[in-house]
Amino acid sequence: MKTRDETLGMWLGVLGVAIFAVTLPMTRLATGTQAAPQLSPWFVTLGRAALAGVLSVIFLLVTRSPRPQRVHWKPLGMAVLGNAIGYPLLLAYALRVVSASHAAVITALLPLVTAACAAWVLHQRARLGFWLCAIAGSALVVAFSVLRAQSHGGGFGFEWADVLLVGAVVAASLGYIYGAQVTPALGAERVICWVCAMALPVTLPGTLVLWPAQPVAASAWVGFVYVGVFSMWMGFFAWYRGLAMGGALRVSQTQLLQPFLSILAAVPLLGEPLDVVTLGFAAAVVATVVAGKKLSQPRAPLVAAAASR
């Protein structure tokens, strides 16, 4: 029974990662480009959170979930700022400038940045090798950004979209960590529901005020509904449930698939070509994440390791 649950947990983790990976091309569909804009980044940000918030309220009422205690409100508020506002807003603005494939390379650093935030916020320690991998991954992202800027006639400078993407990664990481603080007390699914419900007093009026007056392509609405229902809400159900059933350390490795899945999804959805350089950098960044994950925990003592066998 335990093996079957672990296997199911792993597949739920893969499902969650696959849902999150499609967020990049779907967000670009929703916002459009600078040459052909569709929904505004602010509308996409507030609207997706409002849609997820309405679904969350229904879920919390149906399951008769208890209200969070006073000590839970601050971490939930930080999760609102990071996951409901900061990450989607910065991502939406960036994806009006750069391709989903480009964004996939930058956001591949999310597991390492999340670990760094955990060390800062939760005071978790990691070995030196882990931080060396983090530096190597960051250097690869910097090199990729410089090469892309140069190829577009921008010399060796960075594009503002790269700064926005880095900010999005930091915002998401902080949101994950603060949400993780209250997960043991509230339950995995209820954390994202309370985050979205708490944001409703801002996101719902904002969505109504920013509702587009001009015609918007049907594909943009499809992208908007996806990021609201799946990226902001349902994906977290599969992800957190998978972590609980299959073991967080083991299932978290499936997140390494995300940049590749994002690049692959952008091919049929956006018609973006498969770029060898982008794929190469994505593979290199993921390699640093793989190595960093292996070095993220201190080595178990030999006596304890032998006793666990």
Care to describe what's here?
This protein has 309 residues and is an all-alpha fold. 78% of the residues lie in helices and 0% in strands. It contains 14 helices and no strands. The protein has helices at residues 2-21, 23-31, 41-62, 70-94, 100-107, 110-121, 128-151, 160-186, 188-209, 218-246, 248-251, 258-270, 276-294, 302-307. The longest helix has 29 residues, at 218-246. The protein is globular, with a radius of gyration of 19 Å. The two termini are 19 Å apart. 49% of the residues are buried.
Give structural attributes.
disordered C terminus; 309 residues; single chain; mainly alpha
Question: What topology does this entry show?
Answer:
Blueprint: H1 2-21, H2 23-31, H3 41-62, H4 70-94, H5 100-107, H6 110-121, H7 128-151, H8 160-186, H9 188-209, H10 218-246, H11 248-251, H12 258-270, H13 276-294, H14 302-307
Helix pairs in contact: 1-10, 1-12, 2-10, 2-12, 3-4, 3-9, 3-10, 4-8, 4-9, 5-12, 5-13, 6-8, 7-13, 8-9, 9-10
